[in-house]
Amino acid sequence: MLRAAVALADETGIDALSMRKLAQVLGVVPMALYKHVANKEELLDGMLDVVVGEIDPPAAAAGDWRDAVRQRILSARRALLRHPWASRVLESRTAPTPVVMQYMDSMIGMFRTGGLSVDLTHHVMHAMGSRILGFSQELFATPPSEVAPPDPETARQMAARFPYISEITTRIAHDDASVVGSGCDDQFEFEFSLDLLLDGFEQLRRRGWTSRP
Amino acid sequence: MLRAAVALADETGIDALSMRKLAQVLGVVPMALYKHVANKEELLDGMLDVVVGEIDPPAAAAGDWRDAVRQRILSARRALLRHPWASRVLESRTAPTPVVMQYMDSMIGMFRTGGLSVDLTHHVMHAMGSRILGFSQELFATPPSEVAPPDPETARQMAARFPYISEITTRIAHDDASVVGSGCDDQFEFEFSLDLLLDGFEQLRRRGWTSRP
DNA sequence: GTGTTCAGGTGTACGGCGTACACCTGCTGC
DNA sequence: GCAGCAGGTGTACGCCGTACACCTGAACAC
């Protein structure tokens, strides 16, 4: 049932996932689902557990702790990208399931094993935010090639009104003139800030940083 | 009408905000609202514009660019905290309104004025993510004192199952034994990662970092 | 074999939602 | 005096989650 729900959400989007639709796919009456989950929230929790279950376990320790963390987080990212609805659902949750807590715990363990203090690790986890689960909420990530390129007139108005934005967008357009797709390289952006954070953490660790001097 | 919607969401929460309820508050029939907004999405967009409008404009440049950015982002944070629903609604949006774009543009301007290259600024904006608007998606931020402290037995089970999590939570509990409220200091956590990022950006700027060598 | 239990499927119904569509009202400018 | 129009009204549709009472058939004890 959870598999069916995940598959349905993958195919038709999370907004189209209703108890009724899911029941229909399963060839069953809507209320039958309630013998397996208490309510829709619990269904969503279960679906997230499936996704989190797809994340690779921590790699055997070798070299820098940052490599291990990086690798795992990129695995999480891959899982989240396979199920585009998962990040939005995750954001809407108010309490973590045991499966998610298990993941968080092992993630914390990777920092601790890397030599970060309890104190630093705590703040590090906060700083990572949703990145710990492989996604960052890019405000208004534009789905590729959704909007048609604006006509020259409105483009000129845009440039006048939002000079800094247009400075960046023209730079991007120029940079990947050779590449097929236009727009930002989400993977690059994700790794950029991930590495920035991990390097920052490492510097604090070396300095023996503490929040209470 | 937008003010009424914002006030209603502030009081009763975003989930309780329906076109019907809002109409009722305004002493009007639900369909009357559709003479002012095309649909509920547009209403939500308008409400966000109100919130974003509450953010202070950039402070007059003085000293480090980081101070100016920091100050503005903390102002955004205050606005977002006044309207707890705003961050969740923001996350659900797919396209920015002109008001939000204006804000983003001026934010980019602050980085550019600070001496960051177009290239660096672009990635910096991505790295900031939702922090640019004053919030970070803390996964599962626990509302203060929502859950009762678990009985000793389940606490012991928790500690056994999630050793690293409990290591941190006991540390937190110990640290603010003197303070009234327990739990994390969200403001501290926010500023911790904000400063970590800003300092990271500044280092890259000094080094003349570029994504295309 | 008979009766009990129970996991799990069924059918009906309720109250909520967003909103399409046709209609009405009262003010404005000519 | 009247057209135009901004804005409020009433009805209705199709969707949603889910409460509640009911049914079915297999597992099992005796």
Question: How would you describe the shape of chain A?
Answer: flat
Label the structural class of chain A. mainly alpha
Biggest β-sheet description of chain A = none
Tell me the span between the first and last alpha carbons of chain A.
Answer: 52 Å
Spell the H/E element sequence of chain A: HHHHHHHHHH
Low-confidence stretches of chain A: none
Rg estimate of chain A, integer Å: 21 Å
Q: How much helix is in the residues of chain A? A: 55-70%
- Average of the residue pLDDT scores of chain A: 88
Please specify the SSE layout and strand pairing:
The structure is a homodimer of 213-residue chains.
Chain A: H1 2-12, H2 19-25, H3 40-52, H4 65-82, H5 86-92, H6 98-113, H7 118-128, H8 152-161, H9 163-175, H10 186-207
Helix pairs in contact in A: 1-3, 4-6, 7-10, 8-9
The structure holds a DNA duplex (30 and 30 nucleotides).
Written overview of the protein:
The first copy, chain A, is mainly alpha-helical. Chain A is 60% helix and 0% strand. Chains A and B meet through helix 5, helix 6, helix 7, helix 9 and helix 10 of A and helix 5, helix 6, helix 7, helix 9 and helix 10 of B. Chain A binds a DNA duplex (30 and 30 nucleotides) through residues 18-20, 28-32, 34-36, 39-40.
In a nutshell, what does this entry contain?
With 213 residues, the first copy, chain A, is an all-alpha fold.
Q: Any key phrases for this structure?
A:
10 helices, homodimer, flat, DNA-binding, mainly alpha, 213 residues
